[in-house]
Design brief:
With 604 residues, this protein is mainly β. The chain has six helices and 33 strands. It has one domain: TonB-dependent receptor, beta-barrel domain (Maltoporin, Chain A). The longest helix has 13 residues.
Length: 604
Amino acid sequence: MRTLIPCALLFLAATASAEEVARTDSIRYHLDPVVITASKMAESQREIAASVTVLSAETLARSAGHSVLEAVQYQVPGLYLTERSMLGFGVASGAAGGISIRGVGGSPVTGVLVLRDGRPDMMGLMGHPLPDSYEALSIERVEVLRGPASFLYGTNAMGGVINLVSRQRREAGFETRLRSGYGSHATGEVALQHGGKQGRIDYFVTASHDRSDGHRDFSDFQSAHYAVHGGYQAGAGTRLEANAHLANMDLFDPGTVTQPFQDHWYDIRRWGADLSLSHASRHGDTQFRLHGNFGRHRIYDGFRSNDHTHGVMFYHTATPWHHASLTAGFDWKSYGGTARNVFTHLDYSDHAIVEYAPYLHLQQLLLKRVILSGGLRREHHEVFGAMVLPKAGVVYHVTPSTSVRLSMAKGFRSPTIRELYLFPAPTPDLKPEEVWSREVGLTQLVGEGLRFEAALFAAEGKNLIRLKWPRYINSGTFYHTGYEASLNWLPGADFAVTATWSKHDLDDQTLYAPGKKATLIVTVPWRTWRCALQAQHIRDLFAADFRRQPLPDYTTVNASLTWQILPVLQARGVVNNLFAAEYQSLQGYPMPGRTGRLEMNLIW
């Protein structure tokens, strides 16, 4: 309650003076940012037929959560993240770190694709991302596309795409930030950021270390993250970029409260890199990228694995005629690895799968108000053959401040190597999962300070891969419908209100995908202080499909208070779960009650 009082006072003071705050260009940027994920070319968010949310580095930094995905779930309607502790999502504890968008995700997560700078980031054998390998320091922005995006990105982009864009220095000069923090359950962090730009060269490096004893016995967690970005402007239209990252994670799974564990440890290392060359000329923009993502996993039960996902991406965007843009691209990737069990001496051998696909995407402006878009991809898979993936959309700017949009797209995900060849038994005849999605949306701007967005959608899936012991089979279907809404109000450069709401009817696919979700974020500045409140309400959450094993509804509130002590020194206090709500987002793993931490930031 003591934290709420200064926050309320700041809110009243800022509201009273909101009309006196000068409008800045940063407000307009926040309302209509440039997006690259939806079409692989830079375009205004209002020109896109799909539902896209963009989070800036500033938004990530102000989040009360520890990870980038925690910040994302408060800003994006229809997206849900399962958690088991205050730090560390885990790997094999049920659906820990599970991501669902519009009810599509899976356990493990193979229905949502995570990208790093536009290239796929997933465990090569299991086909899922590892949320603990993502940290916010090296991220310039996050773009979340809700709905299928397989026509551009191929497998796994069924429910949506989360693109993590690396941070880079864009202005001449240098910047350095040192952050340290400590809080409940011996949870601490130390992080360093440094970036610079001089002449044609720019770079940005980050290093961080996090640790926690956890709020339950045998739930220790520690991780170290390193990332580097480098860029070279070879000419007026030619740029060379490189990105690399490394994450080391050591964690324990404490088990459920009814079946606790003492020795379930995981030793995981993930690393990756990409090298890209871009060239802009009067003939259009060309992008060529080499990428690789690798992992080494050691688990308490004797499982050992080394995996890879690497490939080539090429695309060219041109203007074939007036008010048109055409993107032609080609993707090739190989994923797989080796696995064995050192206790049972079972060798799963070496497996790899190659996928490649050409694709086209055309966008046309008509009558200065209508934007038509269409895309087509032909995916080739060495096991199940070829698949055609279409996409179509239209955006109509009814007025300069009102836009409506329609879209339709097909998504899919390939069977993973685990499902095809590993355990519990090989099933090499599996077919890919498929989904067709249709959506209608509205965007309404009110002045320069308020944006409202709403979407209705329907998605129909088939050939869902389900385990029928000891083999996998294609048996599942679903029909998802729902609506989502978000409101962003920015009356001043640092005063912001964000609210989201989503209601989904998920048929029988209810595993860790709530039927209703509401969030509210209020950020209020006052002189050298800034207060932020985050609230999330979850209803109709189930720990199994077919609406089985219901979990209690819950509401959590986080609060933070930031003091700019000096131009180069900043202090922040954070209280998570302010009202000590008892809740679980993963069955059997109660989340901690009220926790707090203090952070210090030195910036020069």
